[in-house]
Each structure stands twice: as structure tokens, then as C-alpha cells.
Amino acid sequence: MLDPSSSEDTGGESDPEVVQDPQRKPAASSSAGKRESSSSDRTDGQHLRSAAPGSALGKSAKENSTTGEAQEKREHEQIQKEEEERKTKLQIYVFVLRCIAYPFNAKQPTDMARRQQKVNKQQLQAVKERFLAFLNGETQIMADEAFFNAVRSYYEGFLKSERISRMVQSGGCSANDFREVFKKNIERRVRSLPEIDGLSKETVLSSWISKYDAIYRGDEDMQRQQQRAHLNAVSELILSKEQLYEMFQQILGIRKFEHQLLYNACQLDNVDEQAAQIRRELDGRLQLAEKIVRERKYPKFVSADMEALYMEELRSSVNLLMSNLESLPVSKGGPDFKQKLKCSSLNNSFLDLGDEGAILSKSDIVLSFTLEIVIMEVQGLKSVAPNRIVYCTMEVEGGEKLQTDQAEASKPQWGTQGDFCTSHPLPSVKVKLFTESTGVLALEDKELGRVVLNPTTNGPRQAEFHRMVIPKNSQDKELKIKLVVRMDKPPNMKHSGYLYAMGQRVWKHWKKRYFVLVQVSQYTFAMCSYREKKAEPQELMQLDCYTVDYCDPQPGLPGGRLFFNAVKEGDLVMFACDDEQDQMLWVQAMYRATGQSYKPTPPPQNRTTYCRGGNQKSRQGVEELISAFPCRFNHAALFTILQKNTLKHRMNDSFSCLGWFSPGQVFVLDEYCARYGVRGCHRHLTYLKELMDYSENNTLVDPMLLHYSYAFCASHVHGNRPDGIGTVTMEEKEQFEAIRSRLMALLEKQITHFRYCFPFGRPDGALKATLSLQERVLMKDITTPVPPEDMKKLVQRCLEQAAQINYCQLIEYAQIKGEMDPRVTPEKRLEDMMRLGELCIEVLQQNEEHHSEAFSWWPELMTEHAEKFLSLYRADMDAALQVQPVNSWNSFPLFQLFNNFLHTDLHLCNGMFHKHLQDLYVPLVVRYVDLMESAIAQSIHHGFKKETWQPVNNTSATSEDLFWKLDTLQMFVMDLRWPEPEFAKHLEQRLKLMASDMMEACVKRTKSAFDAKMQKVSKSTDFRLPLSICTMFNVLIGAKKQCPKLCVLNCSQEQQYHSKIDVLIDEALKEIISSLVSKFAAVLDGVLSKLSRYDEGTFFSSILSFTVSTYRNSYKPGLDLADTYITFVRQNQDIFRDCISDELFIKMVYDQWYTGSMKAVCVWLTDRLDLQLHMYQLKTLIKIIKKTYRDFRLRGVLDGTLNNKSYETIYNRLTMEEATVAVKEGDGQLGISMRDSDEEDD
Q1: Rounded percentage of the chain residues whose pLDDT exceeds 70
Q2: In whole angstroms, how far apart are CA 1040 and each of 234, 389, 449, 550?
Q3: Helix 1052-1091 vs helix 1027-1046: angle between axes, to the nearest 10 degrees?
Q4: Distance between CA 1043 and CA 995 in Å, rounded?
Q5: What are the sequence ranges of the domains in the chain?
Q6: pLDDT category, 43, cuts 50, 70, 90?
Q7: Going by C-beta distance under 8 Å and a sequence separation of 6 or more, which residues neighbour residue 413?
Q8: Largest CA distance in the chain
Q9: Which residues partner with 729 through β-bridges?
Q10: How far is CA 1152 from CA 1138, 1158, 1159, in A?
Q11: DSSP 697-733
Q12: Which secondary-structure segment (H or E) carries 571?
């Protein structure tokens, strides 16, 4: 991963004076040549046509000719420029190929965060359509209303947002961002829901997320989506070499056939060649460093004392690369021999390695070979009978002996394989053929033949016949055996074969020997000569500091046709072989082993064989690229091109990378920097430049990535690196200061436009990281922290500008017309302010939800930002309210909108905007309450004058209107939720007092109307309770019910004051009930007065008694008066039950009515205690009492009230009178008795 902990300054030692110039200018392409020749022809023709002197046509042709020449020149320059760029990219690709083919410094990181697939415009449109289909009910997904509302809010506020479209366009938005925003929204909603028994909120959240996934996915095949996601995830992880090759072909624009040519020419599949290339590169870096020391061509540093430190950095970087290369394994099971690089005298002074390194001994050379011997068959066996048993044995000198299976002599075939291990480069392999001895005294089987072989690693690997050596007197003259002998080459054996050799220190005699080129370690190779059946070399030569090359034939050395030599100071070794291909392979192997910078060139007669096909021009171009000496290039400039193109490729792929490279890209860039000495500071500075270019073009870049690179550069420039002080060039310091200024401006812009650079808080934590990076950039050095006030002032300035920008964007989005537009009506302006106010609140809520955490260190600054934002709205709001009509109350919803929002915000509640809002609406509220009080008073006055007392919702029309107005007014003021406590208390007290006064007037008017109505009703049994009386009763009951809500304050003192209206209503109800009961009692008094005419001893008594006795047999006397009264009671009870709305008061009336009736009858009977009741009186009273008792009991009067003392007295008196009459007159009562059951006896 590219961060300060993993990126190391390897000390770029590329000499600025020794930079590879475009010395080999490629010839223009054939098409360009044709274009140039044709343009020349045209130019010549134009010159011919313009030759006539004084001709206007000639002048015009001359001007056209000049223009054409300039155009052709520009085209030619453009072609040359493109060709140079292409050649540079091809050269970079060669270096990249080597980094991929044989990495020894970096590995592909496995701990990088996995990047999500980015969402493009088409996918965004598809997601919008899917969510809209769900909202329109066009899907099969079942959901409740709460989830439906959540999806609608998400669709309107997020998916349709212009900021999301910009984020998608910038390539920094993934499906995971969509999901996280929805999850955050529903978490807030679900938290506000009430608890449900048996259903946890976590269950609701998981269910909603599952439904969201179903909507987002739509009709896509789930399995196909998972497969695609899996493939994408794999491409983000470890890549193979082939995948890396293909990736960088796309990055650098390399065609496939070009890659194939370069791959073959660089021998990327040859590990030895790649290791040798690295050794040559390191040797070249050492030579370049020595040249810098010798010629004192140092880069320009910030301090002159850094020159020695610079050389120390070069020494450390090369030593590190050497140790990395040395740590790579070169053999399996060899000795633990690690040989340091033994350099030439040119580089010893520079490296200062201390010990010169141990000289190889013969015991250090250990080779291990594996032999496979397969015995196939024997031919020419004639001396043995066909039915005899034969078998073979095989052994390697010094090893165990193996035997084949037995076979008949007529068919001697086996196919048996034997595996052997040996340390002899020229082992002796013996294969013998035996037959079983039939003699009794024979101790050993008879040997029929043998063959002795000395296989090598270069020998044939297929089956071959070998003539066997037979014993004397054997008849099998043509005995042959078919064998397969394979000898595998160990990893540390690079080449082998027979050569003629002679040297000054070793191999002092010219003769043919078997040689093996052995790699002991990454930097140590030895040329060893072996004898047969020997594990240790006879002689050896360490190839350190030798140079190998082709040479001319030596006439004085017989044997060998093709010569080459190895030379170093004080020694010359001459080699020769007979085969041209063998010579070439030996030279190439020794060239890779010596690590020399000079590449041997075969003689002219051999070059046709050396080149691998293709035309000469292509071979020259490829040869130039692969033979270019890496140390002569400015790798800092080449790496800048490579990193730029890699980042461009990364930003354009299908992942939302935010500027992070993929693991494979990080691996190649790390390896390139380490191998070719790109300074870490230069790497991060160029990376910062590219990332800032993308950020300035509205592409999302992770600020953490900027932070990592900037922190590394800052620590490097300020000399506070974790690994110690390093050299700092003037160029690095100047670039760093320029980048610091540019980064500071960029970060200020991002903080100012935080709503648009980080919409809905995405990427997660990016705004917080940006603020942290801004604080780091403000630091003048790496150790001195930024004063908190400086950072606070910067953030404050950014947020002030952000408020202005956000409001202007909101005005533009809402399409609000200016206040000077005369076509805009006051109603339209108020409507626009309402819509704009809703948008402002939405912006502030989003800021609190998605961005407040990032500014948590300065909560007061976010409050100031919100107040500044609202102050801009305040100006437009004041202007809109000023043009509203005086008596218009349509602006109250605007106050409620903002007050409800500000009331819940701890920072903005009673802030500047909130107080201004209160000051603006206090006069409106007071005026509104005054007008409502006057209107309600007038409605009471006029309403009761015209009141018909027809029931409206169990009350009168006037009282219903009064209760509704008072309740609506109080609810309106309560919904205002006035934030200032004193004024809120004043409003509440005033409304309660007003309600009490209005209620008192209503009660008094109703009581007056009731009294006037009761004076007009009759007192006979024909009296039926009027509907208007019931309505008046209900009005008072309704007033009593409304009184606690409308008239009573929570404070105890006002409770005492407002209790007067309760007393007034209670007294009015008592008076009404008493008046009704009195009216019912008056009717009963009339009935009793009629019965008084039958009193004993009166004048009318005898007459009425005679009348009654005359008609005794014709009807039941006394029932007419009782029936009329009973009918009166029942019908009034029904009216009361149907028309009165409160059961408590109905019961109260029934109780008082029954008690008064029983008391009146008891008094009437007490007055006639000394008189015997007349038969008529007795019958009438018995029926009235029985029916009254029964009816009131059915109406719910309790037994305690029914069986009071008056009733018991009446019951006893009537029972006694009944008994007296029974004694005197027998069955004179005709079945009417106090002891009868409660059944109706009509």
C-alpha cells in the first residue's frame, strides 16, 4: 500500500547530466513519409504556378504555399512528438516487464480495502425507475406505510438530488454508498417509532434493508450478480504475471504483438537472465554513483552538507537491493553459503563493504542430480534357451543396485524404471544382463552382458539402443539393450558441457574438460571442471569481475573451432567448442553470471542464427529498447509518466477507487521505485499533483490518500522522517511548497463546498479526513502544531462562504424570482417562502445528520454557519412578509414551520434567527388574539339572540360554535409552541381568561332562556319536556365538560380563579335540575289534589262515592287518573333519556324526581292519618306507587334510593288500608293490591 510506512526513499541516483536523450530518433512511418513527399510535390507545384511576376494569382498561391508549409510542419512535429512519446512508453514497458517478471523487492499487498463497483449514469437511472415503480405499486414487494414513507423520502431527497448526479458523474459513488445512506435514514426513522411487543427494532431494520435490496436489485438474476461481484473481487486481489502484463499493456497503450516481441527479446521466461539483468543494473548504478563522486555532479541540495549523506543513501539503497536479491533462493538443499558481492576495484571504494568476501573452495560446490533409468528390452540374445529366465540390474557408481523383474529369454522386455540420486556431474551408470544358473553348486547367476554409460544433463532423453560388452566365448555378438537415461539439471547448475580451456591461474594446459557453471548465491558463480565419478570439481574459477566475450580462433590451440574468453585484470581464460549453438549458449550463460554491463555480440557470420526472425528494422528497434542501459535514463521522469497513466487507467475502471491503486498496480510501482532508484519524495509529490488535478476537475479523491502522501513529503522535506534524516533537493523543496499552497487552496475549496464535494457524508469520513489534512497542511513544520485559533478561523471563514454558496444554490434550485419582479403576487411570494423555508430546513437537517460529526471540534462554528444561512433567508422572508395584507394570517404556517424545527435544535433554539422570528410574529399573534376575542364575543351576543335551541351535536348552534372557536384558538396558540416562556405563559393565561368569560356569558344566557321557557309550560299531566329545555340542559353539561380544557391553567393560583366558572356551571345545573323536579312535583300535586276530593267527611265525598258505586261493575274505577300520571312519568323519562347527553345528570334528575314524588305522597298520606282512605284514593295511589317504583327501578335508580323512608311509610299505610277494606268489603278491590307481583296488570 502507498503510505508513509511502506514507501521508502531509495535515493534516486540517476545523474541529471547523464540522462538518456532521444539519441536514436526513429524514422518516420511510411505513411508519414508518403504524406511528406506528397506535400512536397504540392509545394513544388505551387512554386511553379507562382513564378509569373506581377501576377495576383501568383501572390495568392505564394500565401497558400506558406500556409501549407506551416501546416505540414506542424503535422510533422506532431507526428514526431507522438512517435517520441510512444517510444518512451515502450521503454517504460520494458522496465515494467522486468519488474513483473522477476520481483525481488515488493509483494502484492493483501490488506488493502476492497473497492466497490462504481455506479454510472445508466445504473442511476435504472435505480430511480425501480424505486419509482415500487412507489407506484408496480412491484410485488409488500411493505407497510412506514417503509413506504421511508422509501419516498429516500427517493425524493437522495435519488433525485442533483448532488448525487454529480457524485455519480465524478465516479466516486458505489452501490454501497446508496445502501448506507438509506440505512442511516431508516435508523433515524425506526428509532422514533414506538416500541412494539414481540417485534424488536433490529428486526424491523433488517427487514427494511432486505426490502431495499430487493428494490435496488430489481429483476436481475441474483446468481449472475453474485458471479459478477465475485469476478470483480478477484480482479481486485492478487494478480498473476499474465494479468499484470495485460493490465500495463492497457495502461501504456502497448499492442499485443509488441508485447510478444519484447517478451521474447527480454527472455522474461528465463529466470537466470532476469537475475543477471538485475546484477548488471546494480553494477551500473554503482558505476554511476562512482562517477558522481568522481566528477562531483551532485544534485542541488538544500544544504551543502548533504552530499556525503546522499552518497550514504546510494550505498544503503544498493546494499538493500543486493540483500533482497541475495535472499532469493537459488538452490534446493545446498549448503548455507551466502556470498556477498565481490566487486571490482572500481566499486570497492564506493561500497565500503568491509570484508572482501570469502574465496570459494571445492567443498562449497555441491550439486545434486536425479537420474531416471528405464530398461526397456534386450535384442540379439541367442546363447540362452528361450525358456530360461533373464533379468537386468542397474546401479550408479557409489549407489545402491536395483533389479528388474524376471522374464523369459524368448521375450526379454521389462519397462522397469529405477530412480537414483548422485552428486557426480559425470556419473558412471552400469547396466548388466543376467540369466539364472541351473547348476546345483552355482553361487551366482551368469552374466550375459553389460553396458557402462556416463550420462550428462545435456544427453538425449528418449530411448536408445546400446551395444553391450559380452564375456569371452559368448555367442551373442550383436547383443543390444534399449535404455532411457534421464539426468535432471539442479537449479543451481546454469549450464554444462565439454569445452577446451586454458588459463593462467587454472586449467594451465589446453585440453578438453567437462565444465559446469554453478550458481552458489545470487552474486556468486563458479566455472568448475569435473572428472568422471567425482563429486568435487577438479578445478574451479570464481566468475566475479570477469568479462566474457567472443574472440577470434587461436591457430596455436588445436581442438575446438569456435572460441570465447573470460578476462579480468591479471587473468585470461580461453575456451573453445565445436558447435556454434553451444558457443552461444555458453557465452550467454557466462554473461548472465558475470553481471557485466557489456553485452557480447556474436561474430557477423553468426548473427543470422542469433536473431529470432522478423525483419531487420523491427529487430533493431527491439534491440535498442532491451539493450538500453537503465542507469542512463531519468527514471524520475519515466516513473511520473508511468504513475500518471496508471492512475488514469485506475480512475477510469469500473471500481470506485477514489484514487487508490489496485494491489497489482501498487506492487509494480513499488518494485519499479525500488529497482530503479526513484526517490520516495518524488513519487509522492507527483502522486499528489495527479490526485489534485483530479480533485480540481470534480473527481472524488479520498483525502486519506492525500494525507498519506503529504505526510511523507512533509516529513521528508522537514527532515523528520521515521527512518532518519535524508537528503532533500532544492527541486523537492520547491515542488513541495508549490504543492502545499495548491493543496491548501484545494482543501479550503472542498471545506467551503462540503455539501457538494461530500454529498450526504459520502465517502464515509472523507470530510473529517479533509479537515484533518487541512490542519496538517497548516503546520509550518512537522513538529509544531497549528494554533487552535488559526484552524478555527479558517474553518469559520470557509463555513461563512459555504452559507452564501448553499443559499444561492438553493435559490437557483427552487427557482425563486426576485422581489423586484412586479408580476409576483404577495400570495405567490409567501408560497415561495414556504417552499424555500422547507428546503432550508432540509439543508440544515442534512448538515446535522451527515456533516456535523466532521465539525464536532467546533460545534459553535456549525451554529454560526446555520445562523448565517438563515440570515440570508431572513432578508427574503422579511421582504415577503412586508407586502402581505394587514389582516392576512396566511403567514402563520411559516412561523410554525421554522419554530417547530428550531425548537428541537439545541444550538439554534432562541438564536438570532429564532429571536427575530419571535419579534416578527409577536404583534401578529397579539392582534390575531384580539380580533378573535372580539369576534367570539360578538358571535355569542348575536347567536343567543337568534338561538332556536335546536340540538346541534347535543348542544345548541351558538354554544357549539363557541366551544369550537375557543378550542381552535387555544390549539392554534399551542401549536405555535412559543419558545419564549414569559410570552407563552401570557398567551395561555389570556386565552384561559377569555374562555372563562365567554363560558360565563354562555351559561348565564342559557340559564335565562331556561327560566323563561319553564315559566311558560303547564303543570298538568299533559306536560311533556320540551326539546329546547333538553338542549339548554346539554349546553350546560357541555360547558362543564369543556371547562377543564378551556378555562383551567396548570398553575395553582389561576386554578383557584378559574374554579369560579366551575361553581357557576354547577349552580346553574343544580337550579335547572331543581326547577325540573319542582315542575314534575307540581304535576303530582295536581293529581293528589284531585284525590283529596274523596276525603272522608267532605261534601263531595258522598257524591263521588255514589258515582263510583254506580259504575263499579262497568269498569275499574280510579285507573284513569293513575294511568294519565303514569303515562306522564314514563314519557318524560323517555324524553330525558333520549335527549340528555350525560348519564350522571340523568341519574341525578331521576333520583331527585323519585325522592320528591315519594315525599309528596307521604306528606299527603300523613295529613290523612286519622282518616280512612276512600276506595278510589286507595286504588289510585296503589297503582301510582307501584308503577312509579317499577319505572324508576328500570331506569337505574338504586335500591337504596327506591326503598327510602317515605316509600316504606307509604307502603305500610297502603297495605294497612288495603287490609281494612278487604275485611269490610271482601273482594272489592278487583285484584289490585300492594302485594301483587311487579307484572303489569292492565
Answers
A1: 85
A2: 78, 131, 136, 124
A3: 160
A4: 8
A5: 121-217, 269-326, 369-594, 818-925, 949-1012+1021-1057, 1069-1105+1119-1224
A6: very low
A7: 376, 377, 407
A8: 191
A9: 301
A10: 19, 10, 10
A11: TT----HHHHHHHHHHHHHHHTT--TT-----BHHHH
A12: strand 571-577
Q: Any idea which residue has 345548541 for its cell?
A: 956
Q: CA separation (Å) from 796 to 776, 854, 862, 863, 909?
A: 17, 14, 8, 10, 21
- 1115-1154 core/surface letters (b: 16 or more CB in 10 A; e: else): ebbbeebbbebbebbeebbebbeebbbbeebbeebbbbbb
In this prediction, residue 166 has a pLDDT band, given cuts at 50, 70 and 90, of confident
Q: Which residues of 1217-1239 are buried (b: 16+ CB within 10 A; e: fewer)?
A: bbeebeeeeeeebeebebeeeee
Residues forming a β-bridge with 502: 574
Contacts of 817 (CB under 8 A, 6+ apart): 823, 824, 832
Confidence (pLDDT) at 17: 35
Degrees (nearest 5) of the Cα angle 775, 780, 783? 85
Run of H or E including 369: strand 369-379
Give the residue among 878, 870, 867 at the shortest CA–CA distance from 819: 878
| Cis amide leading into 763 (omega within 30) | yes
- Residues in CB range of 711: below 8 A, 6 or more apart: 4, 776
Asked if 900 contacts 979 with a C-beta cutoff of 8 angstroms, the reply is no
In a 13 Å sphere around the CA of 906, the CA atoms on its Cβ side amount to 3
Which residues, in sequence order, are bridge partners of residue 209?
A: none
At position 60, the amino acid (one-letter code) is: S
**Which H helix or E strand runs over 767?**
helix 766-778
pLDDT in tens, 931-962: 999 999 998 888 888 888 888 888 889 989 99
Instruction: Provide φ and ψ at 338, rounded to 5°.
Output: -120, 110
CATH 2.30.29.30, applies to 369-594: yes
Q: Which of left, alpha, beta for 954 (phi over 0: left; psi -120 to 50: alpha)?
A: left
pLDDT the model gives residue 345: 34
pTM: 0.71
Residues 451 and 1078: their CA atoms lie apart, in Å, by 151
Helix/strand/coil (H, E, C) string of 531-542?
CCCCCCCCEEEE
